Fold these 2 entries.
Entry 1:
Amino acid sequence: MSAHKTHDHTPTTNRIELFSDAVIAISATLLILEIKIPALSNLSNDAVIQSLLPLIPKFISFAVSFVTICVFWVNHHHFFHAIRRSDRALLWYNNHLLFWIAVIPFVTGFIGEYPSQPIIVALYGFVLTMGALAFLLMANYVFLKSKIADEHVPIKTRRKEVKRSVIGVFVYGISVLTAFIHPYISLIIFIVIPFYYFLPETILNDTEEEIY
């Protein structure tokens, strides 16, 4: 008589991560499409340089947004290593985050074209604020509200991860307000904030060993 095999039907995060990687990669790629090749009637070096100068703000906005999206991806990658299974709520928290990341190329093209217009700078800051908020809501659910996080992650570390996400929401939120005081204050915030999240926090277990 053959023994019955048991199957583990616990939903993993594999498909969430694959879908997220695809959306984030496409969003990062779309950024460069906002920079159009200038039409040249004169191919002299001076003419080429003169045609490129107006594109500098667009290249800067592209670079800042590309790094910002990469920071989202790196932190998302490390974040999911601390999750042992998925559920329906996690799917939608993650979809909410991906929605705001997908909007970044649009506001990047806008701010690259009009970098000194307060309402446009504020709109860019609003999108990044909502992206940071989406990450905060997902972290709060995973670490404090659900049972899908790895059980080896101590409560102190869980709370630290959630508090770390609050900082992004707060500072990006300030950038929305400072855009109407002086847009360049907000532009500085957009450049500085990715450095804070450049290296993701290491989530440790009770024995202070990495769980990933």
Entry 2:
Amino acid sequence: MDEQTAIASARQGDHRAYAWLIGRYKHMVFTVCSRVLRHREDAEEATQDVFVKAYQHIGGYQGGSRFSTWLYSIAYRTALSKLRTRKAGTLGLDELQANGQEPQQAPEGDRNDRKALVEWALAQLPAEDAAVVTFFYLEELGIEEIVTITGLGESNVKVKLHRARKKLLTILQDHLKEETWTLHVD
């Protein structure tokens, strides 16, 4: 099944076609929610909410942008909304630890596990910065798509990307003091 066929079928109420779309995008939607919320259970709940909202509003998807852009916009805004709700009832450190939200420690063990280090470093960034970096580097979206998803201006997205890269480099250099890290920007 291709994406356009699945979208058309899902609009007609075909649950299997929508399940195919969920299977295709569930990892990235969860990743976006995780980057913003930084709590697994909240990210799982937000991911479910995203797919329910997307199903309810799939008739509103007009195809003006890629389906993934439309879906990630829902994910990003749903996660931010959940984050704002959670911040309204700010938790103390003891409560965070009880909820499994204690500050993340740098990965121990194999220093060559670059993926784990980068994931850890991303978790150190502010939620919005981590989401923008995720869209740009992991999902390989363009600036215009990130603007559409986040609602930020183009210059704001570019500034966030630039600052986030510098922060990531600093975080990684501080953690791996004896190693030299370089940042490759195309």
